[in-house]
Specification:
The structure holds 2 protein chains of 2 kinds. Chain A is 11% helix and 63% strand. Chain A is mostly beta strands. Chain A has one domain (2-8, 26-187): Porin, CATH 2.40.160.20. Chain A is elongated. By secondary structure, chain B is mostly beta strands. In chain B, strands 2, 4, 5, 6, 7, 8 and 9 form a 7-stranded mixed sheet that branches. The interface between A and B is medium-sized, with 24 and 13 residues.
């Protein structure tokens, strides 16, 4: 999958030699958790997603971003032991936006590497470390609104299916991200 | 002067009448001998007492001399709230089925079947039948047969039980091995008066575990399809097994010839796991002899930690009893010499009444011929609700010096049974090794006039002693009771932590202050030498979780009680 994205990047790069926009933005919002047990114990959370994107050709853009913010503290198990679950990820994406005056709806597909880490404050679970990475695709779309020429506001929804299985049980850390944000577009 | 002479004469007469010339002692009567015993001793009939059943299985039950006919035709005992079926196999209360081989040792296997069951599930023991049949001390050879009273004699004098691994079965190298338990109580269950009068047996199974029982075995009555047995009338092939449960609804049509109604006991045999239902079989309630042929017995055990010494003159135990005509009350006593300074803390004796009442008196420095003339050091009294062999703890220990004489005196009233004095009696062909000395055992009809068994009545009981033991040391220290293991799953979503939750209860029988519990563990199946102390737990805590386990990590645990004297009990065991 990584090779596919690298190929797309290399393909579109020459086209962008003629004219390209560089976009820097960040979104904040909530995320749901698909796994019912994760939802019950840790709950839904918030995420932020700073990113850098390059409009390479007639609305086609590529980019990369970092997803953070999902870090939930609670208590777990028979003994109500303190626990934290963190999920972060680095994601590469490619998409297409269609500009209609000051509004630009867009769709994008991404591929990222997600890190998930469960910490339990218990000396008894040393044999069960949960700190691993897993790759997953993502799909999303949204709307950018340009009140000024270079500055935009954005609303986005993105879904990441992320099934992990550090031990015998498979857990779906995926979920829907719904966020709003702002950014700056440099036009070269 | 005359007045003084008269006064002196009266005083002298009073002194001699009360002290020097006691009232003449009444002559005791020996209890009748068991007819079956006489039949066996006087004219053994191979067809009644064969060593093997007609289909080649070993037997081995022989009658005891003690007559128990007074237990026959008792009123029907109905106990409410007994379940319609019960099976010790389902609650981990039974040790593995054994095979007695070509040896008449069923009685030894049935005895240990009961004892090992009593101790389970918290303690898993395998005691040596070989040591019991080798060293019982009676006139029979190891494989010539025996009965539960021979087992009780061996156990009650602390010759056993020893571990099977010390003297494995079919092995005769005798040595001195550690006694693992002290058998201080054996409860007798009287013969069933009717086919459906099973409640006492059932209650004993529920209270104590497997119960020693007698039967007659003939292959024609065994149904190998249903593993059922019903002997309607034939007195042949005496055998001992252990009752481990019952089923009131066991179909009468599953027997070779249908008895009058449904219902069967579940019995444990000693013919290996390939016989019957993996060693077990069903015996009809209507069997003419099962549970009706002599006494049944539940053997109980106490930890070997505790009593340090046993004072006794009856290594062969109960073989007969004495009484006085027309009275169900009598006195018996032993005079012992202290072999250590440990205090006397318990007394044991047999009781052959359906219920009985006792009074125990301990005297120090008794008169050599008068066990009640001395310094009264302790008194105890109480009632017994069943026949059996019982140990009565004293509320206050009796301090002694080494070499000091002391007497143990018992007054026993055995309801409707006129032979309340249990004795070890020499019977030719059975207990020819029984012996006694003057100054050991005494009996009395009233507690005032005493007769030395050895010297009285022209030596009729010269080789007899009363079955009365005393125990010194400290109260036994028991392991925690109800030690259980529960497997818990702790769900951490990404993984499951498995937990072995261990729970137990303070043993109510402990009489010293408990300061902690020691918990040991080893990997399941590993040798016992790998047990490691994992925690010392405060005496008011009764739960310990062994955490951080994966699903395939299994352990066996042991827990012991530690008391204020620094003693550590034997362990209770629990395993995945």
């Amino acid at each position: 999958m990584k090779k596919i994205f690298l190929g797309i990047f290399l393909l579109v790069l020459p086209a962008g030699q003629y004219a390209f926009d560089l976009e820097v933005g960040i979104t904040f919002g909530g995320r749901t958790v698909k796994d019912s047990e994760i939802k019950r114990v840790y709950g839904n959370g918030t995420v932020f997603f700073p990113y850098l994107a390059l409009n390479v050709f007639e609305g086609l853009f590529i980019g990369a971003g970092y997803e953070g913010g999902y870090s939930r503290e609670t208590k777990i198990g028979l003994y109500n032991e303190p626990t934290t679950l963190e999920v972060t990820g680095i994601e590469f994406f490619v998409g297409y936006e269609y500009k209609i005056k000051i509004i630009s709806p867009y769709l994008k597909i991404g591929y990222g590497s997600y890190t998930y880490k469960q910490t339990i404050e218990s000396r008894y679970v040393w044999a069960f470390p949960v700190d691993a990475k897993k790759s997953a695709i993502s799909i999303g779309g949204g709307l950018k609104f340009f009140p000024f020429k270079y500055i935009f506001l954005a609303a986005e929804a993105r879904y990441v299916p992320l099934k992990v299985k550090p031990y015998d049980k498979e857990v779906d850390l995926g979920g829907l991200r719904y966020s709003g944000g702002a950014g700056f577009r440099f036009i070269f | 002067m005359g007045f003084l002479l008269i006064f002196f004469s009266i005083g002298l007469a009073f002194f001699f009448s009360s002290r020097v010339f006691p009232e003449e002692a009444r002559v005791p009567e020996l209890a009748p001998l068991n007819e079956k015993f006489l039949e066996y001793i006087l004219r053994p009939k191979k067809e009644i007492w064969p060593q093997f059943s007609d289909d080649g299985h070993p037997l081995g039950l022989l009658p005891s001399p003690q007559d128990f006919s007074h237990f026959e035709n008792l009123p029907f005992m109905k106990i409410e709230s007994l379940p319609s079926s019960y099976d010790l196999r389902t609650i981990n209360k039974l040790s593995l089925i054994r095979n007695q081989g070509a040896c008449g040792s069923c009685w030894a296997f049935a005895t240990y079947g009961s004892l090992e069951s009593f101790l389970r599930p918290s303690e898993n023991w395998d005691f040596s039948e070989q040591d019991l049949i080798d060293l019982h001390g009676f006139d029979y050879g190891p494989c010539s047969g025996g009965n539960v009273f021979m087992s009780i004699a061996y156990l009650a004098r602390w010759s056993g039980p020893i571990n099977e691994e010390d003297v494995p079965y079919i092995y005769s190298a005798w040595d001195s091995f550690a006694v693992r338990k002290h058998i201080q109580d054996v409860v007798f269950i009287p013969p069933k008066p009717t086919a459906l009068d099973n409640d006492l047996l059932k209650q004993a199974v529920m209270n104590y575990g497997a119960v020693y029982a007698s039967m007659y075995y003939k292959s024609a009555y065994f149904n190998s399809i249903y593993n059922s047995y019903y002997n309607p009338s034939e007195k042949v092939g005496a055998h001992a097994v252990a009752i481990v449960g019952w089923d009131d609804n066991f179909d009468k049509n599953k027997f070779n010839s249908p008895p009058a109604g449904n219902g069967a006991f579940i019995a444990r045999n000693s013919w290996g796991i390939n016989w019957g239902d993996k060693g077990y079989f069903y015996v009809s309630y209507y069997d003419e002899f099962f549970g009706r042929w002599g006494l049944s017995a539940a053997v109980k055990a106490e930890p070997a930690v505790g009593y340090t010494a046993i004072y006794q003159y009856d290594p062969l135990g109960l073989t007969s009893s004495l009484g006085y005509t027309g009275s169900d009350t009598a006195w018996f006593a032993n005079i012992f010499t202290a072999s250590s300074s440990d205090p006397i803390i318990a007394v044991s004796f047999y009781s052959l009444g359906l219920s009985s009442h006792y009074e125990i008196y301990i005297y120090t420095n008794p008169d050599p011929d008068q066990p009640r003339i001395g310094t009264l050091a302790g008194v105890e009294s109480g009632s017994l609700n069943s026949p059996g062999y019982f140990t009565i703890p004293l509320k206050v220990g009796i301090a002694l010096k080494i070499g000091q004489k002391f007497s143990v005196v018992v007054k026993q009233k055995t309801l409707n049974y006129n032979y309340p004095i249990p004795i070890e009696y020499r019977s030719s062909g059975y207990t020819s090794q029984a012996s006694a000395q003057a100054g050991e055992s005494f009996i009395s009809s009233d507690g005032n006039t005493w007769s030395d068994l050895h010297t009285s009545w022209d030596g009729r009981y010269a080789n007899s002693n009363v079955c009365l033991k005393a125990f010194s040391g400290l109260p036994p220290l028991y392991p925690p009771s109800n030690f259980k293991l529960q497997r818990l799953e702790n769900n951490f979503i990404f993984f499951t932590e498995y937990i072995n939750r261990l729970t137990w209860e303070a043993n109510p029988k402990n009489r010293t202050k408990i300061i902690k519990y020691n918990l040991y563990k080893k990997e399941k199946g590993a040798p016992d030498s790998t047990y490691k102390l994992v925690s010392e737990i405060n005496s008011n805590v009764f739960l310990s979780d062994h955490r951080g386990l994966k699903w395939d990590w299994f352990y066996t645990y042991r827990i012991t009680t530690v008391d204020e004297l620094g003693r550590e009990s034997e362990p209770s065991e629990a395993s995945n």
